[in-house]
User: What shape does this take?
Amino acid sequence: MPYSELMVAPMRQDLVRLGFKEMRTPEDVEGLLESEGTVLVAVNSVCGCSAGGLRPAMAMAVEHENKPDLLTTVFAGQDMAATERAREYFVGYPPSSPSAAILKDGQLVYMMERHQVEGHTPHEIADALKAAFDQYCR
Assistant: This one.
């Protein structure tokens, strides 16, 4: 059962205000994740490691000189059909939230799973994302 939209709206806005495009339907996902170039997908969630780690890390990481061409987000546990469709692009990885993926021309090239977020500081997470941006988004 999804949480109240009133409760999650500020969590959505944490990423939207940074320039992330929300994917709320499977059609949104297909339209954005099949884009040419590099696409970052932030799998947002209500959990504490998303609030304490992933969302603040995203704010730091997207200030990096190298970054994906397109920033997108899907909200696990809220936009279930969109999240399920996005996860179909994460071939070889089980569902994980929060998480982050980089796709290049529609193909997964990088995946940060929950265990790489949980227990890590926003700076550590941002540094890992920046390293991935340097590798895949030049």
Notes: Strands lie at 21-22, 38-44, 70-75, 99-104, 107-112. The chain has one domain: 5-136.
